[in-house]
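Extended Data, panel c. Modelled sequence:
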Amino acid sequence: MPDWKSDLLSWIDDLKDPELIFEKVRRAAEELGFERVVFGLQMQWPVAQPKIYSRSNYPAQWTERYMQLRYYEIDPTVLHGHLSLAPLVWRDELFASTPEFWEEARSFGLKVGWTQSCVSPNGVKTLLSLARSAEPLTERELRGKELEMRWIVNVAHLALGRALVPQFDDACRSSLSCREIEVLKWTADGKTSGEIADIMALSVDTVNYHVKNAVAKLGVANKTAAAVRAAMWGIL
């Protein structure tokens, strides 16, 4: 087993600093012949505009333009990652609908690349791209390296996901009471406070009290948002 794989395995459960984790991933990618790496993570909350985190060693000017111009909304590699977990080799035909974007990316040395995404059970999505400025990615190279490339993707997903995603799930599971969870389940099913009171043999005031507590603990604005967020995190 190559040293970089042993190294990655040795810290995967212990290292917490995202920058240090990314540096480990970058070095592993370099061992496989890729000089550039970008990792992106999309939270599942807020629903309308999910929070996005990224780490990369792409040229700073390109990264700045990419975010300012919201290129992630048209980037074919990102769009593919939203739809499929299959790995993707960058080819000219992939960028046929965004030729200006592709030309600009290539001007920054991002000429050859490979991308794959991952999704956690709680809906958190990550995407890792390995890129370089020369030497096309041949079928022979891909056959010899793809298992290791996929392995890096999964290590980055697990380690960086743990470091970047707040431990919200565990906190909510321990802080929400059984009554609060049950009230949110009925709320998610569209029941009113009065209907929930009848179902649970409680007073309306008691139901509203549990709802208020759940809303506060989940850090949201109302009971609908509380039910949605709890459901998305697997609490319900």
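The domain at 3-164 is CATH 3.30.450.80 (Beta-Lactamase). This feature is highlighted in the accompanying rendering.
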